[in-house]
Amino acid sequence: MADHYLADEGELVIEGQSTLQQPYCRQKLFYIDTQRHFFGGQRLRQIITTYALAYDDFDQSQLTALLAAEHLSTKSYYQRLSKGQQMLFQILLALASHVPYIILDEPFDGLDIIVRERIVAYMVEEVAEHGVSFLISSHNLDELDGLCDQVLFLQHHELVADYDLESLRATARKFQLVFADKHIPAVVKEHGQLIKVYGRVLEVYFADYTPTIETALQQKQPLMMAVQPLTITDVFRVKLGDRQAVWGGV
């Protein structure tokens, strides 16, 4: 997507424009490869100069103010910054570029909670005030809860699921259930998907929770029936987890 590698097939279309036919439209996209980049040995001011040339709407005065707020000096060498400071700088660089689409690859990996919260605050503010879209790739799904409104799952290089979280949470439910005996009620097996087992506590996901299912569960007189927050990790387990292995542990 960032054109760091030549695609084997397909094309990238940004707001109806093909990047093959209109390479200039890549100015709407911002991405820094955190593993392989060219400016490790450069000072921040050198990096800023490069990106100011690459993006027509780059706001250097805004970046200067943001760096000052984070106590980051433009004289500093990028490679001498801490991991958190490097990620902060990348976020601020992206914001100053004034692009509508920002791609982040494992942005919170190895960061302490304070730095993570500061980065999230910048992201949320940018979405709220300027309608910027962030595309985040991550293996740590817990860090994305409360931050994403759409989730896509990849497996073996293929897109296997695309969820609008607001729509999903309007119909789906997760419960912790405990029943008097060890037998799993038919309503749970037929309509639910087991996520985890804690002794006698069953954590169950219902993709389409209806009043009929509610009534059927109440009729089984569960000792505990507690609704739980539905997380992205839960949805991932339901979609890509080994359902038979979980049921086999009951």
Summary, kept brief:
With 250 residues, the chain is α+β, with helices and mostly antiparallel strands. It is built from 9 helices and 11 strands.
Q: Mind explaining what this structure looks like?
A:
This protein has 2 domains: 13-139, P-loop containing nucleotide triphosphate hydrolases (Rossmann fold), CATH 3.40.50.300; 169-248. Helix content is 36%, strand content 22%. It is built from 9 helices and 11 strands. It has helices spanning 44-54, 60-69, 83-97, 113-130, 165-171, 186-191, 211-219, 232-240, 243-248, and strands at residues 13-14, 17-18, 29-31, 101-105, 133-137, 150-155, 158-164, 173-178, 192-198, 201-206, 224-228. The strands form 4 sheets. A 4-stranded antiparallel beta sheet has the order 9-10-8-11. A 3-stranded parallel beta sheet has the order 3-4-5, with no helix packed on it. A hairpin with a 2-residue loop joins strand 9 (192-198) and strand 10 (201-206). Helix 3 packs parallel to helix 4. It is elongated.
Structural domains: how many: 2
Beta-strand content bin: 15-25%
CATH superfamily of the largest domain: P-loop containing nucleotide triphosphate hydrolases
Low-confidence stretches: 245-250
Which word captures the global form?
Answer: elongated
Q: Label the CATH architecture of the largest domain.
A: 3-Layer(aba) Sandwich
What Rg do the Cα atoms give?
23 Å
* Average of the residue pLDDT scores: 89
- Tell me the number of strands: 11
